[in-house]
Amino acid sequence: MTAPARRRELATEFLALARARHARYLTDLAELVSIDSGSYHADGVNEVADWVQHRLHRLGFAVDRIRPAAPAQGPGSGDVLVARKRGALRESDGGRRILLAGHMDTVFDVGTAAARPFTLDGRTAHGPGVSDDKGGLLAGLTALEVLDEHGVDGYQELVFLATPDEEIGSPAARAVIEETALGVHYGLGLECARENGDLVIVRKGVADFRLTVTGRAAHAGIEPERGANAALEAAHLTVAIQSLNGRWDGVTVNVGVVRAGSRANIVCPRAELRVEVRATTVAGIRHARQALHEAAGRPTVPGTTVEVEQLDLCPPMEDTPAARRMLDTAQRAAAALGITLGAAATGGVGDANLIAGAGVPVLDGLGPVGGADHTPQEWLDTSSVPPRVALLAALITALGNAGPAHTAPGDACPAR
């Protein structure tokens, strides 16, 4: 049987299995959405983790629950869940390690699930986290069930990662994410698809900076000439930094916070700027960082100095040749399902950024179609669930077995 014919056969079988689970998917989704699991509500996040862990145990995964250390200030997070299942192939046989990543937290406060419960209007579901990311998390689990029932084990290892604090940048889970990604061949993000069904092949990285301007205080009425106005220098810097927008493709720079002075009758001795840089490539962040240092080294106001500190960095999920090969495999799997699949870039960040930062090629947006994330209007198109589950199962199958050295990803057909 030719590879395209085999793909069509597998797609039909996976789709039938996904459709058979659709009613249960909706019941499970309603249950997950009814759990308040905001990023700062550790008990709620862990209730979701208990639910996910139970499902994974039933599928034969070995599950680790990792409780990150609580920060010096603020509440602790829920647990990070890392589950693993060995396949039938060794790496030397072409077996590949595939990481599926979703998150258990939402942006909503405790009480939101009761105030705005899960609803289903025709094929459209609403509720807190229905799209971001409980719908995608559940789609990943359902795809694993489809593979298990079909008997697919043509891979080296499947790793399922569920994080507790993605909505706030994964400060607690980051080290676990990066460690889990080491040695993985492919990363698949379970965030929901774009509204038109596109996958995500690019997520901008984010670098946060603090620029501290030091001037010299003086009486503003009697001897202002003895002062060096840090607020004025901050204003010049703001204009200069904002003008960096448009200099490099895929790079945006924003002065989001400016603080200066304490009294109107004192020449301002100190000011602070908080600057965010977003870029589609590591090189773009590097260019912007260099430009910030150059601007800081040329103060306009005599007597002022500027210090630049980088406070944080979330690496970009770049559009790489390896990611394009994954996309090609996904598009061939989608074509077998009658789906035309595109790829999009987004300025939003997620756990996929951290996986990509570990050197792993990543595709994101492999969950069902949804939108209006982080709002009361958040929605999920439930009719998209069976085909997206089947697509995810087909993609895992294609990527899991690299086959002979001359075989392109997706052309190998696992034994049944």
UniProtKB/TrEMBL annotation:
Domain of life: Bacteria
InterPro entries named among the record's database cross-references: ArgE/DapE_CS (IPR001261), Bact_exopeptidase_dim_dom (IPR036264), Pept_M20_glutamate_carboxypep (IPR017150), Peptidase_M20 (IPR002933), Peptidase_M20_dimer (IPR011650), Peptidase_M20A (IPR050072)
Gene3D superfamilies reported for this sequence: 3.30.70.360, Zn peptidases (3.40.630.10)
CDD domains: M20_CPDG2
Keyword Ribosomal protein: no
Boundaries of every Peptidase M20 dimerisation domain copy: 203-296
GO molecular function: hydrolase activity; metal ion binding
Keyword Hydrolase set for record: yes
Protein name: Peptidase M20 dimerisation domain-containing protein
Provenance organism: Streptomyces longwoodensis
